[in-house]
Amino acid sequence: MSILVDNDTKLCVSGITGREGTFHSLRNRAYGTQVVAGVTPGKGGQDVEGIPVFNTFHEAVDATGTNTAMIFVPERFAADSILEAEDAGIPLIIAITEGIPAHDELRVYNILKKNGRSRLIGPNCPGILSPGKANVGIIPAAFFSEGNVGVVSRSGTLTYQIGNVLAQSGFGNSTIVGIGGDPVPGTDFIDVIGLFERDPETELIVMCGEIGGDAEERAAEFIAANVTKPVVAYIAGFTAPPGKTMGHAGAIVSGTRGTAAAKAEMLESKGVRVGRTPTGVAEAAVSLLGDARPASSLA
Amino acid sequence: MDLLEYQGKQLFARHGVPVPSGMPARTVDEAVAVADQIGYPCVIKAQVQIGGRGKAGGIKLAKNQREARAHAEAILGMDIRGLTVHEVWVEGASEIASEYYASVIFDRSAKAPLVMLSTMGGMDIEAVAEENPAAIARLHVDPLLGFQDFHGRRLAYEAAVDADVVRPVGALLTKLYRVFVDEEATLVEVNPMVITPEREVKALDAKVTLDDNALFRHPENAGLRDISGEDAQERMAKERGLIYVKLDGDIGVLGNGAGLVMSTLDVVAQAGGTPANFLDAGGGSKAEAITSAVEVILSNPKVRAVLFNIFGGITRCDEVARGLIEAFAQINPEVPFVVRLDGTNDQEGRRLLAEANLPNVHTESTMDGAARRVVELAAAR
Fold first, then answer.
1. Which residues of A fall within a CB distance of 8 Å from B258?
2. Can you give the pLDDT at residue A293?
3. DSSP B238
4. Cα–Cα distance, A235 to A216 (Å, whole number)
């Protein structure tokens, strides 16, 4: 098992004919993901190395039965593309695009919530990887193998770093979910942690947060009330000064709110182990699940 | 993007929010001429993006031309908590019967705009929220519905504003909400919002933050950026398309991806060092971007050692190595570099660095090891 994407994923990519869109669609297909369609208005009828391109999501759904959308169009067109995918009834929409205006994100979030038929992952996220099954997005799959650790993260490269130290301790992953670094993510930590709790393959959940907002604090409450599996957290940004946006639009400490120290304290008070460094996360995983490396490599 | 008070007021005026009439001035003579035109008494207000201007002596009432000149002389060039005043705003003095507080905030947690109103204006609202939270009426607005007249009435009654101004206060909240939505702001705050003895409602201050990501839809706002408050290195980085935040320490840091860079700063701090900057070279950085980033990092004279922490996904480690080699060819840095390359094309990157045999460049295989090494090297200088 895994969550959100797997062998049944039938992916349609909005912006497939763009440079990045083509590159990552083909990479996702090479990994084994079923990439069944692309959408670029005006280029319907063409194909990208055998992947049929449609003018609209609605046409793509009718022709291919796609059940997952990936958004790769530039920021000024992204909200419209997400709403189109939702209108076409696609249940899972993964938005990679960075720099979408905050008010667009707010509108999209509230429309999706009101209609209640699609889940949005991102925007400004690296996507979702279920090792051995499907990769949707830009996560470099080569660093990850199948296993029992579910990872959910606000950051891309930090996830690779943590995934790598986990891999060095012998752990593989059920699914890795990048929820993105923007102020209004379509899906929050608690949604993904809830999915991991119900996924039989996942035995340990790693949550990778950062400064800004209160998603980690709310996750701490949720974990205490609803999660039986062990959770290890990491928070980036202990040294971040207030009032400065640290790269991600959502990563800003305002006044005393949203600091890494406050988040770590809250998580620990709810019984969640917090690794102080990426290496510390791997050490915590080892202490909770035991060293997963084969005995021969421990010499 | 944070606006200066007067830029916010000009935005307000475009949306029909009543503000005192005024004009900006950059020199003492200009300020006096503007004051003469507006008439006395008038107020001369320092335009810097920081709170506590009044306490610092940056807001003064002038009853005549002599006072206007004296105040403008004192305020222009004044330092307010590290920011130099380059500009003042001169406006007609307002008579005040009551001071209220009003704001519209982009509430990430609730994923909805939050409108707040209080009769305890004119003071630090954070302190009011702390000591007397019931004094602030709050209402989340469904962004798909928008701000309705009844929202304004609810807030006005709940905040217990004077009965005769319930309607105008509600009308002003409606206009502030319009500013928030139409200009794509993430914050619109008025403190104080005043009631005059004639029972008019006016915005006496304006604090507005616009969403940078939405500026492409608001070309008229793009020119409002106040670069006088920006740090020279931060400005240089922005011009080169790099995400850079200056910090207080002496260890320059470069990484790819915001989360990894934040984490690198933390690991450096845990190793006993103090980072000089945050620099995210971004995904898929090409060699030129790396070279440019090295220049920005080294333009800060406090930097005594530099750490590169790269985990290549889209970013290719060989490109990073090429960029660093090119930077050494161009600027020949005097400080030591510690480089950790992992991920896509890491072996090729390390091979290129070994071949180039750059002076004072040390490679490390782990993030923790690299942080310890760079702290040692900085301390040794």
1. 155, 181, 210, 246-248, 251
2. 59
3. H
4. 9
pLDDT for residue B345: 87
- Any CB–CB contact under 8 A between B143 and chain A? yes
A161 interaction partners in chain B (CB closer than 8 Å): 260, 263, 311, 342, 367
Which among A107, A179, A181, A104 has a CA at the least distance from the CA of A137?
A179
- CATH tag, A144-289: 3.40.50.261
Domain boundaries, chain A: 10-121, 144-289
Domains and CATH numbers, chain B: 22-92 (3.30.1490.20), 98-222 (3.30.470.20), 232-379 (3.40.50.261)
How many Å apart are CA A73 and CA A153, to the nearest integer?
A: 22
Look at residue B230 in the predicted model and tell me its pLDDT.
66
Reduce the DSSP state of residue B23 to 3 states and report it: strand
- Angle subtended by helix axes A278-289 and A157-168, to nearest 10: 40
Starting at the earlier edge strand, list the strands of the sheet with A10-14. A47-48, A51-54, A34-39, A10-14, A68-71, A92-95, A119-121
Which residues in chain A are contacts of B317 at CB distance < 8 A?
none
B50 in reach of chain A (CB within 8 A): no
Q: Does B184 contact A at CB distance below 8 Å? A: yes
How many cross-chain Cβ pairs, A to B, lie less than 8 Å apart?
A: 166
CA atoms of B176 and B155, how far apart (whole Å): 14
Task: Kindly state whether B186 is in contact with chain A, defined as any CB-CB distance less than 8 angstroms.
Answer: yes
Of A139, A238, A251, Cβ closest to residue B258: A251
CATH 3.40.50.720 fits A10-121, yes or no: yes
Best to test chain B binding among A31, A75, A100, A103 (most B CBs inside 10 Å):
A103
Q: What is the pLDDT of residues A126-148, one digit of tens each?
A: 999 999 999 999 998 988 999 99
Flag if B266 and A239 touch (Cβ within 8 Å): yes
Put simply, the answer to whether B283 touches A153 (Cβ < 8 Å) is no
Asked if A102 lies within 8 A of B186 by C-beta distance, the reply is: yes
Does the annotation mark B100 as catalytic?
no
**Tell me, what's the pLDDT at B227?**
60
Average of per-residue pLDDT values in chain A: 93
User: What is the DSSP secondary structure assignment for residue B145, as one 8-state letter?
Assistant: T
Q: Which residues of A touch B278 (CB under 8 A)?
A: 240, 244, 246-247
Q: 3-class SS at B194?
A: strand
Indicate if A144-289 has the same CATH topology as A10-121: yes
Burial class (CB in 10 A: 0-12, 13-18, 19+), A177: buried
Nearest to A139 among B214, B270, B313 (CB): B313
Question: pTM value?
Answer: 0.92
Each residue's pLDDT tens digit, A224-283:
999 999 999 999 999 988 888 887 877 877 767 789 999 999 999 999 999 989 999 989
